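Why this split exists: single-chain examples teach little about how molecules sit against one another. For that reason, every record in the complexes split bundles all components of an assembly together and asks for one structure covering all of them. Below is a record exactly as it appears in the raw files.
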Amino acid sequence: MAVTHPAGFARIHPLHALLLAFPIALFAVALLADITYLNTAEMQWSNFASWGITGALVFGGPALAWAVINAVVTGRHDRGFARWGYPLMLALAWAVGLVNAFQHSRDAWASVGAAGLIMSLMSTVFALAAGWIAYSPRRSGVVA
Amino acid sequence: MTRKFTLPLASLGLAMALSACGSGAADVRQTGPNPVLPDQQRTLIPPMKIARPTGWNGQTPTVPAGFTITPFATDFKVPRQMLLLPNGDLLVAEGKGGHAPKLRPKDVIAGYIKSIGTTSVKGGNRITLLRDADGDGRPELRSVLIDGLDAPYGLALVGGDLYVAEQGSLKRFPYQPGVTRITVPGQELTKLPSRINHHWTKSLTASADGSKLYVGIGSNSNVGERGMEVEEDRAVVWEIDRATGARRTIATGIRNPTALAVEPRTGQLWSVVNERDELGARLVPDYLTQVRDGAFYGWPYSYYGRNTDPRVHPQRPDMVARAVAPDYALGSHVAALGLSFATNGGFGGPFSEGAFIGEHGSWNRQDLAGYKVRWVPFANGRPAGQPRDLVTGFIADGKARGRPVGVTFDAPRRALFVADDLSNTVWRVTPRAQPRVAAARAGTPAG
């Protein structure tokens, strides 16, 4: 579905943008929850992180699929990093997030640890980078 | 935290390997008084194998030469523990409890996976009475003795008082010999901890003199992952005064004491206990132990004595230092749920003095463990020697035909009852050479 836009061109479709908003917000939430858990040993924070990561994966999955299809099908409008940078960043965020979901499924203090914290940080940074690229308008072209 | 900085890369690597490990090439011996405890293996996904259910199709479990096994009764609604009454009637508690909320995605997924290996029948919340007056192994009478219970599990009879441990209450019912139906509501002797009820089963037995009742209360989590606040009065054995209902905690840190029984020679209290998961396929062995007054058995801070569990934070070296090792290991993840001591010479021969153990079977290892009834020989009131299989064949071609729970030895008839909560059957094991009841009454020794 193509939408033309008068003043600058959004890189992605609004629904695609909404899907992408979830991993950006939820990976960051998980990171904050992890930090709080490590500071308090209060299990509920680890549970919050666990749900945050799961939500990020659930909504990030379709966003990632959409991003890959865009790069393949309509990527001729972008060149080089602009074409593959966004799906690559989102794929990295999602893959690390998947491992981190299993990490967070371990019991009690083993659910986060340094490994969980670092993976949450990685997912957050990759998701933010993905969002930065995806939400940057381009000068001309087609929204897909 | 800093010492864990080697973990991330290792964890990422493990994620790729997932959880291939499950059984070692050369297996370690994890039964008896001194089990081998390998290093902890904390994988991202625990090794899992659920035996999918299948039917018996007219076949029966396997017993050693010289024994025979028959279905005593079928079509139960999740039979768990049993009690033999003085007149020979058998009571079967049927039900399924627990109302642990799903706190994280894992609870949803693990709950589904474990449910694959269980019956689809809804728990009966009742106690069924079976009467086999002529002792031919086929009950002539079957009656719902008590209905409308809340996940009944432990049963005990002292004089004219029948005690039922529901998942949240210990109740007393008036019992007269021969009754087949009790309609008067039970009197609550004491409430039992039931918040969340991750491990909901409340095991029960009476002291040798009948003055005290013992209730086993399981932990509310695997290893404290629901927070330690909800572990108040959990992973303990209570001693309850039968006259007043007053209680005293006699053992702590005893993760899930699923069956309690009094050893007949010494009159001491024993329990089978289920230990924690997700430390590897060979950790932690479930155990059989005498429940010593005042003992702390380690949960959640340590296992099998002073082996620290790193998943608990903050750690408690002071508690670990107090932890005592249990008496006898039964193997990792076998899920012992049944305990019954042989009395009056048991089955004779090697089965004269000892304990029958019902093992429900594992999920947390690739090679299935448990799914059988074993015999632990005793001498002078203590375990003596390695366990031996008594009832097997619950697994066929990797599928589960049944899962043993409670076991009850019937000394006057020299029979062992085994509750099976997958096929919803109670099995009856007898020595093959056992004479018919007329001869038995005449005092002819069997088999």
